[in-house]
Amino acid sequence: MQINGVDIKDTYAEAFGIKVSRLLVTAATKKLAKIAATEATGYATSVIGCPAEAGIDGYVPPTETPDGRPGYNIMICNSSKKQLDHELLERVGMGILTAATTAVFNALEDEDEKLKIGFKLKFFGDGYEKELEIDNRTIYSIPIMSGDFLVESELGIKDGVAGGNFFILANSQMEALIAAEAAVDAIHAVPGTITPFPGGVVASGSKVGCNNYNFLNASTNEKMCVTLKEEVVETEIRDDVHGIYEIVIDGVNEEQIRKAMSEGIKAACTISGVREISAGNYGGSLGAYKINLRDLF
Amino acid sequence: MQINGVDIKDTYAEAFGIKVSRLLVTAATKKLAKIAATEATGYATSVIGCPAEAGIDGYVPPTETPDGRPGYNIMICNSSKKQLDHELLERVGMGILTAATTAVFNALEDEDEKLKIGFKLKFFGDGYEKELEIDNRTIYSIPIMSGDFLVESELGIKDGVAGGNFFILANSQMEALIAAEAAVDAIHAVPGTITPFPGGVVASGSKVGCNNYNFLNASTNEKMCVTLKEEVVETEIRDDVHGIYEIVIDGVNEEQIRKAMSEGIKAACTISGVREISAGNYGGSLGAYKINLRDLF
Amino acid sequence: MQINGVDIKDTYAEAFGIKVSRLLVTAATKKLAKIAATEATGYATSVIGCPAEAGIDGYVPPTETPDGRPGYNIMICNSSKKQLDHELLERVGMGILTAATTAVFNALEDEDEKLKIGFKLKFFGDGYEKELEIDNRTIYSIPIMSGDFLVESELGIKDGVAGGNFFILANSQMEALIAAEAAVDAIHAVPGTITPFPGGVVASGSKVGCNNYNFLNASTNEKMCVTLKEEVVETEIRDDVHGIYEIVIDGVNEEQIRKAMSEGIKAACTISGVREISAGNYGGSLGAYKINLRDLF
Amino acid sequence: MQINGVDIKDTYAEAFGIKVSRLLVTAATKKLAKIAATEATGYATSVIGCPAEAGIDGYVPPTETPDGRPGYNIMICNSSKKQLDHELLERVGMGILTAATTAVFNALEDEDEKLKIGFKLKFFGDGYEKELEIDNRTIYSIPIMSGDFLVESELGIKDGVAGGNFFILANSQMEALIAAEAAVDAIHAVPGTITPFPGGVVASGSKVGCNNYNFLNASTNEKMCVTLKEEVVETEIRDDVHGIYEIVIDGVNEEQIRKAMSEGIKAACTISGVREISAGNYGGSLGAYKINLRDLF
């Protein structure tokens, strides 16, 4: 199977269950909303080493938000509900409440349950906080030095999907990189999904475990390392490939992950030099979701 | 004392000791370096709730970096050396190693000691890593899917200063906000300092402790909350002030903190509507550094 | 009439007819498309002194473009058809053809007529150009050093509307400025409209003619200048206003101008310190369109 | 000769004399200064079809500007003094005076003569303008709706150099493109130079004249078009090159052009896949400056 001359490998992405939240951060201007959304979703590429996986889902114009101000939907994810509760509290409390002119609303539609994030944050108001109703939501207004911070009392979480992924294999590193950027641009148009790695792109896909150092749970995927092609006999990189980037996607459900993968792959295939699209899996033993690349089209 | 018609209050900023690191992140282009620097310094406004305090110190053009590529100096800070070691490992490993085309070099000049961050990260290479010497530094080259990630073996840390600060009090919230942005622009020109809050600006300065909820260590500073001015009898906000933002600065030493405060305050005072510059302190009992505002000029 | 406590003055914006074009600029990535769109729409705030009025209408994700790549709709306008033909040729030829990886498609839906822009640009190919059909459009492929530039043979133009406008009057300059930025953010969500001034905001609204220098056709609108309030007896600025910015909108038709004005005004009224929304008119003698502010809501 | 394994061709860039101006645009914040600088330098890639060549030279922090606010040095150029006078008047008047919170200062050090740009713009004040002295400069303060616009009475111009250039030839289009971006990043560190094309990069280098259409003065440089390699017998593209971008530099003098070329070429050579650096010339008959690539190092 080919798209625009690029081989779509007969393989699958192995994805995992994760708890996801989705919040709308609004502010006085688009720029101010972006600043808060960026701070709150930083240091969150993978739960392998970060305290959460997080990213910006998409921009919401003022014409479509509860308070008529521009905003960004962001997603914050963790396998553990308790950990997610902690991360939501701290990322909203330290990254958004502290940011100029912001407000936070729930943006998850079919949540499994709700966490009392706004309810807990209100105590920061030291008794001066107030309960409001906006857009049929219970909102706390917390007085801060610069004005009032508004936050919805409860934020929904649900069982979502992490680790949707595909590999972009190109003739050179820079072709793979531009293709990865194009893929991320396309995935941004799919609501309910994020690409949590820096700029949406993974430079360093890993394998489970480590052959030489038994104290490590994850290590470089040497069979896919372009600079080890000559050295590693079992390399899985074809002759005409010298650059590889991976895209990892978290989403509210499998359907949106599939849509994001499909749009991302099509976008990557518009870039000259891309030779093959593949995907990461671990024998199918770990993740609950197997997404065949060729079924996406 | 006045600057450009703005009252400089006769008070001091109370700052604290913190362990600081300073790294240079380079990449193929300025944009790619910014992406990595942003991810690695996210979720790091204050150690009150974040696992670190971190931010971008400044841009370094390719003409001045060890590898002739554009880069950003970033600072990552924590009171505990052990915690800082952990944060450096994870923020470099998860936020920079994973980012496209990056390399990491030590950028602290007079370190107290060195942490083996690159040395520990090299194990990700699963035996394929190599030791190089660049610019008289010991560097590890770790093969990753997209190419090779370079990281200096040891990164310096030293006793620096956190919590340098000043308040911008203006006639309105938006005047205080633009003045805060101007202050942050100016502070960016002072090397060895960061403003770790979102966009460099603090919307929600806090007090130690909480009057109404004894389970909280920090809560809103009601005496400085503009929307509580009428309600709180002990308000410290003068009549003509309706907007307040705070700037918090971490730095490699007190001298750079002082320079940053001085430049930041002068810049804030270029904005119309600013009435007073004040600062946050806690009676002088907690922090080792007392920086009198009026001594800065 | 008030919106969110802000007075909507009983006045009208006087708008004028202008010839408009609307093109889609696509590129390999969103960033590259933005670079080309920005260059092609620069130096184009007002035909009073610029060779065109131009701006970015909105972003179009790769999922919705003819070539599956990210793009921006831009609008280029001029009162004279001949001049517009010239500007389209030069702005596409010098600002987009010269930009990396771009393509240009017509994005005007109900054009009055078509100009042979792509047809004329193809001669740059010196005989090596080719005619293609993409998405039922006649496209020329012009070989350039970096690859092939694609441009639609004909670009539509139509009678549109220029000079839709409103004034934001606030207690201070910075409140008016943030409100103007919020208004521009909202107007970006209205397709078929641009705000051609720098950042979408006009700092220097003018009056027709000049009282003191008869060689000038336009000069400062002293009755609305905040720093002349005390000096100019006929000032039209109320006591509580010390900052004024104007928003100017060009659009494909009156309906979209009205929508943009409505959304922009509502957004401006979310910002604290805004006191009044007014509009610019010249006695109704010059422009064909009179848009009453109070009829918008 | 090779740099980092890249062949530096034994050829020269042919550059031309041009009149250059250099202005400092300051504003309340860095972001606002960037908006004005971008508008004023748009639609200005090449005087072949644009009314000027213009670009942003570099950022100037508030610590180093006459008014203590952040700013950008920009350059505006034209072969004709009369035309440059016109462009300065319109680009400052329509692109900077109209932008929020801006001021304009001369930033050319050893000018040949001075043009009365501020002096002419002051008439917009309709008699309310005032003359000030700031930093030993004669400045006009012109009241506009949002406040006062400050502009230096006279702006210097001098005989500078246009058309400094080099070609980046890489194995693929995307490698050449990233290398071009890296080159532009490096050139930004050389004061007194601009790269006037979109994003600093030229996608469509041209030849003088046209073989097939005698009504054209410039047309595609078919011998350097990668997609015509097989078709054009006289192609000058070596076998291993499939992507070419050009960098064009204008500067205040030949020395800065040479520095910019040198830094830009070194930066381009850090990117994998780059094979050769060449340059554009026209037999040496047209331009006064011949800059041998190999003499730069």
TrEMBL record, chains A, B, C, D:
Gene3D superfamilies: 3.30.70.520
Keywords: Acyltransferase, Cytoplasm, Hydrolase, Methanogenesis, One-carbon metabolism, Transferase
GO CC annotations on file: cytoplasm
Domain Formylmethanofuran: tetrahydromethanopterin formyltransferase Ftr C-terminal: residue ranges: 147-296
MF annotations from Gene Ontology: formylmethanofuran-tetrahydromethanopterin N-formyltransferase activity; hydrolase activity
KW Cytoplasm (keyword) present: yes
Record InterPro entries: ForMFR_H4MPT_ForTrfase, ForMFR_H4MPT_ForTrfase_C, ForMFR_H4MPT_ForTrfase_fd-like, ForMFR_H4MPT_ForTrfase_N
Superkingdom: Archaea
GO biological process: methanogenesis, from carbon dioxide; one-carbon metabolic process
Domain Formylmethanofuran: tetrahydromethanopterin formyltransferase Ftr N-terminal: 1-144
EC code: 2.3.1.101
Keyword match Transmembrane helix: no
Localisation per UniProt entry: Cytoplasm
Catalytic activity: N-formylmethanofuran + 5,6,7,8-tetrahydromethanopterin + H(+) = N(5)-formyl-5,6,7,8-tetrahydromethanopterin + methanofuran
Pathway assigned in UniProt: One-carbon metabolism; methanogenesis from CO(2); 5,10-methenyl-5,6,7,8-tetrahydromethanopterin from CO(2): step 2/3
UniProt similarity note: Belongs to the FTR family.
HAMAP family, sorted: FTR (MF_00579)
Function: Catalyzes the reversible transfer of a formyl group from formylmethanofuran (formyl-MFR) to tetrahydromethanopterin (H(4)MPT) to produce 5-formyl tetrahydromethanopterin (5-formyl-H(4)MPT) and methanofuran (MFR).
Quaternary structure annotation from Swiss-Prot or TrEMBL: Homotetramer.
Protein name in UniProt: Formylmethanofuran--tetrahydromethanopterin formyltransferase
Organism: Methanobrevibacter cuticularis
Gene coding for it: fhcD_1
